[in-house]
Amino acid sequence: MQAPDTITIALVDDHKLFRKGMVELINGFTGYHILWEANNGKELIEKFTSDKLPSIVLLDITMPEMDGYETALWLKRHHPQVKVLALSMYDHEESIIRMLKSGASGYILKDADPADLKTALTDVVRKGFYYSDLVSGTLIQNMHKENTHKELAKLNERELEFLKLVCSELTYKEIADIMCVATRTVDGYREALFEKLHIKSRTGLVLYAIKHHIISVS
């Protein structure tokens, strides 16, 4: 019987032999279970009529009928609570950036060690994102580089201070104490950032800070 806290995963890849191996690998991880398998994005979408949804979609990029980019965008629009971990043979900068912009919470190569895959799955659930060495560093600095200075200019000094603090494990009350302001003032900073940056959650603020190199990913 599946434990109630088991992390469920939908695996989307058009190579059946590879998929079979991944199913055996992931089901062998303690606390993880493959809920669905699909050959492509179109087949995956057909499964989303179910009441039980996966925690993570492990998504290949290059697939027939509906590729990973289209599928990630569909999930972002229709099921934003479901995290996407991109799975690919390619380490091209363009592919990585495009998948992250399409809504993926991380990117891992198909030849990664099993331990790295487990770490990626765990990070996506616990932190809301997974950035390996492949994605961090230069890639993170390059993401949205055409908008970075313009968007950061929208934020005042106190909002930037709050943004850095919100990327920690501190509660909003603890952040208020550090900033020497009332909790309702911190709530105001949060709502202002949500509006200015078009973000709807604390996780979104963390991802924004990482993408714009406001905080370190190390």
From TrEMBL:
Q: Which CDD domains match?
A: LuxR_C_like, REC_NarL-like
User: Mind telling me which Gene3D superfamilies this protein's record contains?
Assistant: 3.40.50.2300
The record's annotation in SUPFAM superfamilies points to:
C-terminal effector domain of the bipartite response regulators, CheY-like
Q: Which residues carry this modification: 4-aspartylphosphate?
A: D60
Q: Which residues form the HTH luxR-type domain?
A: 148-213
| Keywords linked to the UniProt accession | DNA-binding, Phosphoprotein, Transcription, Transcription regulation
UniProt keyword annotation of Transcription regulation present: yes
The Response regulatory domain is annotated at 8-125
Key word Transcription regulation present: yes
PANTHER family, per the entry: NITRATE_NITRITE RESPONSE REGULATOR PROTEIN NARP, TWO-COMPONENT RESPONSE REGULATOR
Q: What is this protein called?
A: Response regulator transcription factor
Organism annotation: Rhodocytophaga aerolata
